[in-house]
Model the fold of this input.
Amino acid sequence: MKKLLISFLLLLACVPYVGAQEGGKLLSMEEAVLGYGLYVQNRRCVWTEDSSAYTYVDNNAIVAVDVRTGKSRNVITLDEVKAATGAELRSLASYAFADGALLITAAGHDYAIGLDSKELIYDYVQPKGENVTSLGGGRYVFTRENNLYYADQTEERAITSYVNKNMVCGQSVSRNEFGISGGIFPSPDGSKVAFYRKDESRVTSFPLLDVTTRTGSLMEIKYPMNGMASEFVAVGVYDVNTKKTVWLDVDDFDAERYLTNVTWDLAGEKLYVQVLDRAQKHMNLNSYDAATGEFVKKILSEENEKFVEPQNPLYFVEGDADKFIYTTDNRDGFYNLYLCSVSEGTVERLTKTDADVAYLAQRGGRYVYYTSAEVSPVDNHLFRVDMKNGKVLRLTSEAGWHTCAVSPDGKYFIDSYSSLDVPRVVKLADTEGKKSSEIYRAENPSAAFNYGEITMGTIKSADGRFDNHYRLIKPINFDPSKKYPVIVYVYGGPHSQMVQNTFQASMGRWEMYMAQRGYVVFVMDNRGTDNQGAEFAKATHKYLGQCEMEDQVKGIEWLKSHPWVDGERIGVHGWSYGGFMTISLMTNYPDLFKVGVAGGPVIDWKWYEVMYGERYMETAVTNPDGFEKTSLIPMASKLEGKLLICQGTIDNTVVWQHCLNFVEACIKSGVQLDFFPYPTHEHNVYGVDRVHLMQKVTDYFEDNL
Amino acid sequence: MKKLLISFLLLLACVPYVGAQEGGKLLSMEEAVLGYGLYVQNRRCVWTEDSSAYTYVDNNAIVAVDVRTGKSRNVITLDEVKAATGAELRSLASYAFADGALLITAAGHDYAIGLDSKELIYDYVQPKGENVTSLGGGRYVFTRENNLYYADQTEERAITSYVNKNMVCGQSVSRNEFGISGGIFPSPDGSKVAFYRKDESRVTSFPLLDVTTRTGSLMEIKYPMNGMASEFVAVGVYDVNTKKTVWLDVDDFDAERYLTNVTWDLAGEKLYVQVLDRAQKHMNLNSYDAATGEFVKKILSEENEKFVEPQNPLYFVEGDADKFIYTTDNRDGFYNLYLCSVSEGTVERLTKTDADVAYLAQRGGRYVYYTSAEVSPVDNHLFRVDMKNGKVLRLTSEAGWHTCAVSPDGKYFIDSYSSLDVPRVVKLADTEGKKSSEIYRAENPSAAFNYGEITMGTIKSADGRFDNHYRLIKPINFDPSKKYPVIVYVYGGPHSQMVQNTFQASMGRWEMYMAQRGYVVFVMDNRGTDNQGAEFAKATHKYLGQCEMEDQVKGIEWLKSHPWVDGERIGVHGWSYGGFMTISLMTNYPDLFKVGVAGGPVIDWKWYEVMYGERYMETAVTNPDGFEKTSLIPMASKLEGKLLICQGTIDNTVVWQHCLNFVEACIKSGVQLDFFPYPTHEHNVYGVDRVHLMQKVTDYFEDNL
Done:
């Protein structure tokens, strides 16, 4: 597999993306940042219930294309939807099909419109609140402030009634780590609702300043810092009919355990929870009785001296309530899918590839569809595996990054992909790998612009064991006899992948803006990032930033090996983890980097939050050496180049404890640096203000590099 | 008077201070900011009780010099004091004489040592608390958190016991405006204590971030903003013997009235308070019965359509309990002293000069000593006036700024002065203006340095009615055929005077640091500042910054009239009000100023506090035009030059509401500017960190001007 990978990539590196030639337009900063007219068009397809057609929105109508005949017909028009619902819809951006009806959500209503009759079947009014979640049949659960409520079309009632604001119900917990993105989990038939409760009483508050009010005001957030008191999480189950709540009887590990990936069984009788200790080195997958909350069984467990990090729910096998598909990278070195039996406690490897795999769907109780990095970490291909015999079929062929949607009957799939020089192609294909036809091809929206050449390739990691993927953008009107300054854009943190074989290699348009101003731009994923297996991902454990820097320096050395690179003029820019990397590189390699711009940087992991931070860094008690080596506070005195730090003033992810203490350390060391705050912005600067930010970043490189 | 003034100043402007010549040393930034070895030495003199000698500390001993014979003797040595007290004293920096004893306060003790015996007479232990105030005889009042306490050497008791932290007793009120600097006022015999209480319940809080704690923490301050709910102030009187507190029955004006300049009568029976309405346009001087709190009498009142601003207590005439000396600028256009009768309600002008006067002392029930600006606003001279016949005698002769101490018997005074080229001279003189002898002359500590020429002079205010005083520093090795860039250092706000005829014209050493780097440095007081009378001071009313800018621009025009000024390279720097001026100038006169550095700037007076802000600006309701014209928020889009804002991150005077909203306005206007925070610093940056600040300021001018 490795050999195939490398030869493929060498090929890739030889086929650069070449933009428009000399005389093409230059990007304005607004175009670079906001992308006016420069987003690649797409055709988002939705399968009909009966799999007979795929649909998409065109010309204010939902158009269906018959998969056998290829004939198009209007399913319904925007005007018809407006007539049926009476709602002031402006587009058909989002819809679904169910029970012969079109489902549309708009302005706090859930509408169903008969596809034949074009008449309203129901109009369910959503309750006013946050995290509104449908149980079906016009029944909802939702949150208001810290409590959870139930409402249907006739009544509303509280599920929880905590006066203490530190008891927060129905919202996400554990700062959205472990794949957690919400706190409400309806059972399959909607008769019960599992929900998170977190008790933040012991978690320290961090003050943020809201300057938009008349006199300025406090926005206080709960922020559990590495090594300090954390939240207590519980899972409740509310029975809509009996109006009773039971709590899962979880007793594993310590009180600050994590309850992750809450999954209902198909019958709605049991709940499965992947429970981790606070240290994140052990995981028990347990089942609980949803009616009583009682612990039923430990199905399996994982342990790892670095960390275990379950990120996916269980996918129960259609028609076989005893079996589910489970995802882990803790057994064979890569994220793979495993077929498990609840009753027998067996865990059988389903995908047998030395590459990271992501579950997509299953059809007919037999086939599991998944995407994986097995062709290359920068490509994403669709496969299916037969659960009966393990036979694998690769379903996508063109190099690139494929995003797929399998038809409900499993016979067809929509394949939407792009690659370095392909903006977007959408195809209809059958799942036997026999037929395929293109149904949409996007134009290159930047065809009229003068873009520099974009190439992809790999550079050996500093330990010589991995291939790190990069994209390289050469300045426009490139003259190899000249010497160009370099801007390294870096992120480098866990669960990231900056370089993919998508259109223009996932380039940020600002990179091309800089290439148009005479800079070589270089972006490389390093060890610790995604899609190259567990060993690659966990190489950074306890010493975040250290081997990432070593890898980035390999990239710099490679750059400097080219005669057209001005090795005295290398700048680095990154945000968040990339801000941490930027300052780490500036202070650990002051001879290599002349200018840096760090956004919202982590400065010392002791100030970052418990969930992410303790996974990768443990705590200062168990890992004093790691904290000492990675802290940028003692490195402030090593800063020699020009460094600008930018940060949102209400950053609730990397709090100002970081940047201000670094500024303070610089002041105490007599080191000059620059700083700029973005009021009203959190951990990043989005929207129109981002134009100002990127102008500031650009000016800083233009003035100093 | 005016004519004398002008001719005197023309003379002054012709006698520049000339520093060391070429080849002298250059200041390091540490020397410029921290002043290592560059402070002018002084001889601080203290009169003995019997006026027979003045004393000073020399060689770890208190030396007394007999005023008649000139003979010196040791009063007591540091070793003798240490032996008597047993305290670990390191110097005799501060002492007083009373009842034949030397009084020394050290390490929470008040010691009295017999001057003859050299033995300890008493050792009073101060209680642990804040604002510890002696009532005499080892009795104290002090504060802990928001309450006031009494303690003597045997017991401690609470005077107030408010659980509500918004009720604050014994501390300063009204944000130290109106000359208020504390909240505890013992009666002459110490049997009663008047104290302030403020109720801040309605005042909004402003959040500050303390980054020095492990997880970061909130420092919340009460900050009454212009036009918003303010504090309620009351004055209580605690009787030490009865242990009862009464409250002054104040009923003037509105509930947010100001109670200022609390003064005891000589008998300790009545309290005098100068009460203002919240609008600060009316003042009633009332007396109250200290035993009951009852209102006794309105003695006099003031009103002014701009503002009245009492800043001084009453000075009761020795030996005549009915008479007191009162200070106001509201009657004759200048701060003058008035002799008032309590019983007759008469107010008789005592000092009859068209210049601002400051009370110093009275002696023998007949003479009042005062200093005044009547020779020139930049000079300070001692005078005495005979209360019986109004006869005035000027007691200091040399041009400059005199600081004086009259002997207890009124026969002699110590005259300590400096002027542009005189570092410091201390003289002993008699109060008949006959004899005078020099007792100390300081060396010039910067004699070995290469300093540029410092000149003083005046420039007509923009309305042509006043003379604004400036100091001008020319670059070292000045060549009039060259063109030099200029740095204007500006403050310009009420109650300031940047230019005085003191040594080197009160220059900040950083100014000379810049002159050594080739900059012309210019500092000028404008209308609205001190020491030129009420009309001059109040010219800015309701439109802060406007006529100040007009005056400063006159200064710029004058500068540009010189061939050695590079009019294209003018920078401006100021802090606080000077930061407001800096940004006002940069945005109102973008063609004049290329670079600005503003520290802790006011951006919109609606975000400044009630007491100072409403005096000068009223509120946005009564003065909408003034608020609109002076706000820098709409001016953000006019910024063309390079602007750096620096601010302490825990600034509790000009809160971050100002700077962040200006930054936000710049972002919204697409205007670039620079910003730098000083964590752990309040409204200014002091101590060693100031070296970093001034290096940053310097770099900003060096890089951009």
Observations:
- The domain at 2-39+445-704 of chain A is CATH 3.40.50.1820 (Rossmann fold).
- Confidence is low (pLDDT under 50) at residues 1-14 of chain A.
- The two ends of chain A are 42 Å apart (CA to CA).
- The CA atoms of residues 281 and 408 of chain A lie 38 Å apart.
